Amino acid sequence: MSVSSVVKIKIDGVEVTAYEGDTILSAAKRASIYIPTLCYLDGLSSYGGCRLCIVEVKGSPKLFPSCTTPVSNGMEIITNSERLRKFRKLTLGLILSEKPHICSICVANGHCELQDLAKEFGVDHLRVEREWTAHKIDLTHDFLVIDHNRCILCARCIRACDEIEGVHVLDMKMRGKDSQVIVDMDEDWASSRSCTSCRKCARVCPVGAIYVRDKPFSEIKDKEMAKFILSRRGL
Amino acid sequence: MKPEDILRIAREETEKQGFYKYRINICCSSGCLPFGALNLLKAFENAVKKFGVESECKVARAGCPGTCSVGPVVLLEPGGYIYQNVTPEKAREIVKSHIVAGIPVKEYLYANEAFFKKQLRLVLRNAGKINPMRIEDYIAAGGYQALIKCLTKMTPKEVIDEITASGLRGRGGAGFPTGQKWNFVAREKNTPKYVVANLDEGDPGVFANRTLAEADPHSIIEGMIISAYAVGAEQGYIYVRAEYPLAVNTLREALRQAKAMNLIGENILESGFNFNIELRLGAGAFIAGEETGILASIEGRRATPRPRPPYPATSGLWGKPTLINNVETLANVPPIILNGGDWFAKIGTPKCTGTKCFSLTGKVNNPGLIEVPMGITLREVIFEIGGGILRGRKFKAVLVGGPSGGCLPESMLGLPIDYESLTKAGAIMGSGGIVVIDDTACMVDTAWFFTDFCVDESCGKCVPCRVGLLKIRNILERIMKGEGKMDDIDLLEELGVYVRDASLCGLGQTAPNPTLTTLRYFRDEYVAHISEKRCPAGKCFKEQASLEVKE
Amino acid sequence: MMGELGKINFATVWLSGCSGCHMSFLDQDEQILDLAQKIQLVYSPLMDAKIFPENVDVTVVEGAIGNEEQLNLIKKIRKHTKILIAIGDCAVTGNMVTLRNALDDGAGAILKRAYIETATKNPQIPNDVPKLLERARPLNEVIKVDYFIPGCPPSAHLIKYVLTEIISGRTPNMEGKAKYG
Predict the structure, then answer these.
(1) Chain C residues 57-86 with CB within 8 Å of chain A
(2) CA dihedral B259, B261, B263, B268 (to 10 degrees)
(3) What is the pLDDT of residues A91-144, one digit of tens each?
C-alpha cells in the first residue's frame, strides 16, 4: 500500500489506520474492534440487509451499515451507542418473530448465529407477535434440505452459489414479507440440473434453513471449513 | 439537421398555426380517455366540418390541463376556455356557439377559476396546449431552443453553473441540489457515463409524472439531452412504469420524432455531441423508483436497492457514473437554460426555488394536477386551489408526500410547502401527492392503509422495512379490532423510529411517516380505540357492534 | 417483599409445557437450599395446593397458554402476583406448543392426530378436558410479564441467577445469557 492510500479514521474514539477501499467493518476488524454482523460473511460480497452492523458516523443523522460503507479520511465512527444497541436488539427480535424460529427443534440449535446473537444482546422475549404462516420445506434433493420456516433471507446462500461456486442456482423470488429463496426457476431442488450439490449454501447458512441431511450439524457448520472454501475463491 | 433548421421549423409551424383563429385542444390523457376523449376528437372534427369553419379552427389532441375530475375536458384557445364533461352533443353546440358565433357556452365551462389562480405552470407549461404526438408543436412553443443554446453557445460547465444558480432541487422527493448532482457526475473520469430519467411513479393517487409524459414528452427529452451534454454521457434511459401504456407510447413516438430530427443520435445538430435514449419499462414494483433499485432494474436484475455510498454518481449503471433525475426535474431544465438561473431562483422561496407539481386528491372540491410555486401554504392549496372540502364537511388531515408522507392536522395548514418545512412537520415532499382527508376518516385506519401499501411494496432486503413495517401494520390492525394495549402506542413509536432510522433505502426510511405523524397529531384517536374501544370517526368496530346487537 | 417468617411467597406454575423447566429448577441441586432460605413455596406442581393463593410475591410460570383453563388461570395469577417470571421457551415465545398455530384449525388437527389417527383402540376425542385454544400463545401476548428466562430448558445456573437477582431487588442483566433452545 502506498502512503497516499492511508486513511485516518476514529472508531469509538480510538485512532485507526485504514486504507482506501476499506469498509468501516474491515477497518474495525483489523483494529480488533467488534461490530456484530449476520448477513455479512468474509469472502462474499456485502449485502447490507440485516442492519446489525449499522454504526453512527459523526456529523450525519443517518446510520450506516459498516459492511458496505467505505471509509473516508477524518471519519469518526461510533459502533456501540445506546441507540445502536436498542436497534440491534429490535432487529434480532424482529427476525425471530418473522418466522416460527423454534430453537429447541432446529437442526442448528447450538450452532446458530441468530441464536448466538440473540443471547449476546439479551433478546429474552419477543415484543411483537410472531407470524404463524407455514412455509415450504423442500426435501426433494438427495441430501440438501431447505426449510423456509427458518430462513432469515440473509442471501448468503445466494451469494455463495453465485460468487464462489459460480452456478447461480439459488436466487430470491417475490418481495417483502413474501420473499423466498428459490432453486433455479422456483423448482424442486431435485429437478435442478444446474445445482452441483456442492453444499456451500449449507455451509454458509447462518441458521438451520439449509442443511445436509443425516450429517451432524457441527460438521456442516464447521467454521474453519467454510473459511477454507471461501479462501478458494477465484481458484 | 442544423440548429437553423429547427428554428426554421419553429417559424413555419408558428406561421401555420397562426392561420387558425381558434384551436380546440381535446385532452387525450389517461384521465379523459376512458370517458371517450377519442370519440370527442372525432365529434369536434365533424362539427367543425359541418359548420364549415375548418379553415379558422384547428382541432387537435392534447395532454391534460389538470382538471382531471371533470373529464373529458377541452381547452379552447385563445382565451384559455376550459369546457368540462364534454359530450359529442355538447361538442356541436360549443362549435356552433363559440366558434361560429363567438359566444362561449357558459354553462359548460369549468367554473372554478380559483383552481388556476394561484398556480404557476413552468413544468406543465405546454400541458394541454400542444399535441404531444407532434414534435413540431413542441418546437413551435419554443421547444429545443434551450438545447440549441447549450450546444452552440454554452460549455458543459456553463450549463451546470446555470442549473446550480437556479437552485433547482430534485423533484423525486429528496430535494438534493440538481446542479451539485450534475457536477458530481461531470467530474468523474470513468466512462462511459449514463443518464437515467425516473418515471416510475408508483404511489397511489399520484399522477403528476404520468401527466407530464403524456402531455409534453419532449420537455423531458430535451432536459435529458441537456443533462447528458452537461455531464458528458452518451447513453440515456427513460425508466417508465409499464402500467403507464399511454405515457410509454407517447414517449416512444416522441423519441422516434426527435431521432428523425437528429435531436438525439449521432452528432446532434452537427455539434459533434452524441446521445441516445432508450425506453426501459418497469415491471410493477414501487421500489424500482428508488435510485439504486432503478439501476438494478435497468441492468435486468431484481429491483432491490443497495446501500449508498457508493453513490450512482460514481458507481451506477454497470459500475459507471450515472446521473439519475426525476422527469419533473428534467422538465424544469429547458426554461432555466432559456431564461437563466437567476430568473428561476426568484420563483418560490430562497432555499426552495421554482415550482412543484402536486396531485391533489381526496375529499376536495377541485381535485386534479396542479403546479404551484414553492412556499405556498397548504391552506392555499386545499381551500383556494382545491376549493375546500367536498360536500361541506370538516377538514381533518392532509397527507402530504404519497403513501410514505405525513398526516398533518388543521393546525399545520399554514405550513409553507418546501422540503425543509415539510420534513420538520413529519411529512415529505415525496412524489407530490396531496390527499385531503375529511372528518369521516379514522386516522388509525388511514395509517393502516398507507402502511399496508408499503408492506406490500417493501423489497424485503433489509429487516427493519420487511419485518418492522409488517409488525407496525399488525399492531395497527390489532388496535382497530379493539385488541390494542396501551403499551402498543409506545411500541408503535419505537418501531416507527427504528424503521425510519435503520432501513436501507428511502422506502423504509419514510414508510413509518403516516404512523408516526398520526401518533403525533391524532394520539387521542389511538387512545380512544385502545382504552374506550371506540372509533371517534365511527369506522372501526362496526363488525363487533353488529354482533352485539345480535346477542 | 416479606411474607411469613421473613420469607417471600413464591409460586411455580406448569401450563402447556413438558415440565422440563421445573426439572431444571430442581437441578440447582444443593444450591436450592440457599433459595429455600428466602422463599415460602405457596403454590406449585411440586406440592399439593389446589387453589392459587392471593398475595404471591413471585410466580414462576412454565409453559405456553394452550387451553381455556390455562387462560383463566394465568389471568388470575397475574392478579395475585407482584412479580411474574416466564420461564422456558414455551412461556417466553410459545416454543413448539405454538407449532399448531401454523395449521388451519390447529387445535382440531392435533386432537385428531393424537386421539383418532394414531389411536389403536376406540378412537375418540375426549370431551372432559379443558378446550384447546385455537392458537397457543406465549404469556406476554396475554398478560404483562415482568421477567423472562428463555431456554429449553434454561440452565439451572441461569434460573438461580435470575431468581437471586430478583429476590434481592436487582434487575437481572440478560445480555450474554438469554439463549433460546
Answers:
(1) 86
(2) 100
(3) 999 999 999 999 999 999 988 999 999 999 999 999 999 998 889 999 999 999
Residue A118 with chain C: CB contacts under 8 Å:
178-180
- The domain B443-531 is placed in CATH, from the list 1.10.3720.10, 1.20.1440.230, 3.40.1280.10, 3.60.15.10, at 1.20.1440.230
The rounded distance, in Å, linking the Cα atoms of B444 and B477 is 9
- At B336 the three-state DSSP class reads helix
Which cell numbers hold the place of B238? 427513460
CB-hemisphere CA count at 13 Å for B389? 14
Architecture per CATH, domain C4-97+135-167, reads as: 3-Layer(aba) Sandwich (3.40)
Domain range annotation of chain B: 18-113, 142-345, 355-438, 443-531
- The C-alpha cell at B539 is 369506522
In angstroms, the separation between the Cα of residue A171 and the nearest Cα of chain B is 10
The band of A230, judged by pLDDT with boundaries at 50, 70 and 90, is low
Buried-exposed string B211-250: b where 16+ CB fall within 10 A, e elsewhere:
bbbbbbbbbbbbbbbbbbbbbbbebbbbbbbeebebbbeb
User: Do residues A206 and A152 touch, judged by C-beta distance below 8 A?
Assistant: yes
Interface mutation target, options B471, B473, B488, B497, chain A, most CBs of A under 10 Å: B471
Q: Is the pLDDT of residue B548 over 70?
A: no
Domain A3-80 has CATH 3.30.470.20: no
Which residues of B fall within a CB distance of 8 Å from A63?
501-502
With beta carbons less than 8 A apart as the criterion, state whether B167 and B255 touch: no
List the single residue in C86, C89, C135 with the smallest CB-CB distance to A104: C89
**pLDDT digit string, tens, across residues B497-538:** 999 999 999 999 999 999 999 999 999 999 999 999 999 998
Q: Is the pLDDT of residue B492 over 70?
A: yes
What CATH number is given for A87-231 in this structure? 3.30.70.20
What 8-state DSSP symbol labels residue B99?
A: I
Mean pLDDT of all residues in chain B?
Answer: 93
What is the interface size between A and C, counted as CB pairs within 8 Å? 80
At residue B196, what is the residue type? Answer: V
Q: Which residues of A touch C145 (CB under 8 A)?
A: 125
**By 3-state DSSP, what share of chain C in percent is helix, strand and coil, each rounded to 5?**
40, 20, 40
| Domain layout of chain C by residue ranges | 4-97+135-167
The length of chain B, given as a count of residues: 551
Residue with cell 441516445: B276
Q: CA-CA distance, A53 to A38, in Å (whole number)?
A: 8
> The domain B142-345 is classified under which CATH number: 3.40.462.10, 3.20.20.70, 3.40.50.11540, 3.30.479.30?
3.40.50.11540
DSSP B500-514: HHH-SSHHHHHTTHH
Secondary element (H or E) of residue C12 = strand C8-14
CB contact under 8 A, C94 and A123: no
